[in-house]
Amino acid sequence: MCSCWRALTRAFFGGSKSGKPDSPSTISVNSSGQEQSRSEVNGQGATVPVEIVSSGEIGSGTPRVSDEIRQGGNLRIFSYLDLKSATRNFRPDSLLGEGGFGSVYKGWVDETGTAAARAGTGITVAVKQLNHEGLQGHKEWLAEVNFLGQLHHPNLVKLIGYCSEDDQRLLVYEFMPRGSLENHLFRKGAMPLSWATRMKIALGAARGLAFLHEAVKPVIYRDFKTSNILLDADYNAKLSDFGLAKDGPEGDKTHVSTRVMGTYGYAAPEYVMTGHLTSRSDVYSFGVVLLEMLTGRRSMDKNRPSGEQNLVEWARPYLNDKRKLLRLIDQRLEGNYSIKGAQKAAILSHHCLSRDPKSRPLMGDVVDTLTPLQDLRDMASSSHQSTSKSLSDTNRSANGNGPSHHAHGHHNGYLSPHNGAVRGSTGATRLPSYHQSPRQYSRGP
């Protein structure tokens, strides 16, 4: 999967039309095509191997699609002409975004059938069309159909149907009017999300992951990040883009061995180093996203001072220290956040980001932790001004009398997968051990 897929997902439903890829890059691309190796330089100056494959997987050598699609789903099978009409001939003013997979268009289809509907009637959909020259190809199209065709949950984007006609490959999704979480957190000029909305999104996304991990046949999502969390009109979070999803280990197996695939800044360190994939890999990625929501910062931002570019490494000393925690919180919230909620969310993020996968909570535990945070009302607003002044003085001193960079703009970058130990502090909050959680043993590895 190439980095421009991130831009496509961000624009997927109501996003940018620029089509320009964001700088966070995928770690690898997996495909059955002929492979060609090259290297990329990550944000820390280290060269990371990246596998590039040719496209062109659709052709005479490809098995029949009907044989590859898992049975049991209730997906509608659209004709190419249906979708051409639904998107008004894929005309430019229907375009929602472009990327490595291809283009995404807004359209309207019949409520129960496959026929196109007049604009503003029937069901509003997003139609994703495979670019035959792209890097994603038939394999990821098929993964989307097979996973989302079988999995149904309020916190997963609904796949309505697909089109497989000659060499045409299209997917038809429910339309998500508020776009991606990434847009709301980092897009220039976007209004900051309220604390309550952030916690609502975090809980919804956690429920989506927990559903995948606890399914009869568990699924590892493998690409959890802000651009893949889409929001409906009421800011309900839904996971999208299942092109990298993988069936979990079966029987006595503890992990799935795969090529390393995902997005820099979100992939768990043990997965990057070994290729051993488990549900705890998703938990690490959730910890990164939760930290982004707490801070309003990207996982890597090369425009920040050198000690602040790597979000996880910069935040570690603060996550389990009540006295330092306020330095983490997004200043655009202006004190309108729950003190207890921020403390508990920070500790949760700390556990999710543990270097030891077994020390990370299960997603069911994450849901249990986030649920009571939805209604806390101990807002920090009353002490915000004095706290902000104190933090400003501290940051100015730490940066050599320079201004604090905490509330500056947000940019892309690459994050090293290394996770160092958390520095101790006399003011540290005692962290509960998830090894003692009774839920852990009932939910599997």
Question: Can you walk me through this structure?
Answer:
The chain has 445 residues and is α+β, with helices and mostly antiparallel strands. The protein has two domains: 4-174, Phosphorylase Kinase, domain 1 (2-Layer Sandwich), CATH 3.30.200.20; 181-442, Orthogonal Bundle (Transferase(Phosphotransferase), domain 1). Helix content is 29%, strand content 14%. The protein is built from 13 helices and 14 strands. The strands form five sheets. It has a six-stranded mixed sheet with strand order 3-7-8-6-5-4, with helices on both faces. A two-stranded antiparallel ribbon has the order 1-2. Strand 1 and strand 2 form a beta hairpin. Helix 6 packs antiparallel against helix 12. The longest helix is centred in the middle third of the chain and has 19 residues, at 195-213. The model is unreliable at 1-26, 28-62 and 384-445 (pLDDT under 50).
How widely separated are the two ends?
27 Å
Number of domains: 2
Globally, the shape reads: globular
Number of distinct beta strands: 14
Structural class: alpha+beta
Mean pLDDT: 74
CATH H-level superfamily title of the largest domain: Transferase(Phosphotransferase) domain 1
Structure summary:
The protein is α+β, with helices and mostly antiparallel strands.
List keywords for this structure.
two-stranded antiparallel sheet, Phosphorylase Kinase, domain 1, 14% strand, Transferase(Phosphotransferase), domain 1, alpha+beta, disordered C terminus, globular, 13 helices, disordered N terminus, 29% helix
